[in-house]
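Input.
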Amino acid sequence: MKRIDFVCYDFLHSYLVGLLLSAVVVFICWFQTPSVTAAELPDFAMLVEKNRPSIVEIATTRQVRSRAPVADDQIEELLRRINPRERPNLPDEGMPEQRRRAAVGSGFMITEDGFVITNNHVVVGADEIQVTLNDRRVFDAEVIGLDEPSDLALLKIEATNLPHVEFGDSDSLRVGEWVLAIGSPFGLEFSAAAGIVSAKGRSMPGRSSYNYMSFIQTDVAINQGNSGGPLFNLDGEVIGINSQILSSTGGSNGISFSIPSNVATNVIGQLRNTGAVERGLLGVRMREVDYALAEIFGMDRPRGAFVDEVQPDSPADNGGILNEDIILEFNGHDIEYFTDLPFYVGQYRPDTKAEVLIYRNGNQINRTVTLGSSPTNMVADSTPLVSRDRINPLGFRVSELSEEARQVSGLEGVRIAEINAGPGRQAGLREGDLIVSLNRQPIDSTREFARVAEALPEVGFVPIRIVREGQATTLALELVP
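Output.
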């Protein structure tokens, strides 16, 4: 009997303890509910509904020369092996040796009269550009201006009373803030994706010291086709333009990069006014201030841009900046990492007077410099050197390299000013590439380029050596009759 009483007591005790614990859990959840409600996620639905009418899909078409055609008897023999009972219908002899290649990107309207922003890489070299609005209307677009260093392009369509976005202040953006992207990933038009700001001030690997970009990094799912689309803050303002992803597969890995809106407004303003963008030049070769350099030069911590070399007769040289100076501020902007310096220099035009705070021999010194013109500033007055009517057109125009660009880069050559359909585009050449040799012959002027180009063979492959973003490479031009 006592054993039964003991068992019953133990069971009752366990039941009461369990009931008490359940009550405690309910009590905690009850009092935590208001705080969970207060921390609800943003209303992305309202954000999308408000801004989606301003988003556009951009389709480009490029005419590409086909490879040498396969002979009719080869086609017939190949298809006979696949299906020996049927004789193939051979193509007409007059079939053109051109095919059209389409690409899709994103963009958004910034004015009610049809100005559209997208990425430079979405539309550069396109023969035709079509803009599809959210209401399914389609317009042919005119290119107002392209800017390769910022990867921005300004287009114009003939329409009025269009919905458009407002820009926000990208400098006030904080890491951890919610952001929303709308675009056409893989051609799935007007798709929305949300995430947070992962970092600011990112510089893409492999860029040269003339990289005038400091990206916003997010974990928003950006894929092919999102390029050129807007990145919104929770106030519905555009604080970035989606430009690149970091991926080993070509798809989203949660690391995407957007052009800050404050950079975009500066670039787009210049493109709208003049069709081109001008950036200032300081004229220094620099690197990061690491822990060892900070200790050697008596700094409390690593920061700034270490001046490895001041280019002779450059704005920095004329302004009194010396080798082994450490630049701490540029025109009021703190230089925390050396990649900050070209970004801020690029926000000012040539001939701008700028204040530079440097660290030298334990002291902070102010210097005033007058900015020069960056080698990335395209020469508007380019000379057509290869006639498109020539038997073997290379399909691009080149311009002289400015004396300042020669001095700063230490290179001789000519710059590609415009590229169209032809061997150059097929080989992968881009506007802004510096050509240093053609067919293994050094190029130091447009006149020399024209002489070498005119002497090229009618058919076959010829090498062309270029410098792009500080990196030299050799490509093959395929010449066809």
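The chain is about 25% helix and 35% strand.
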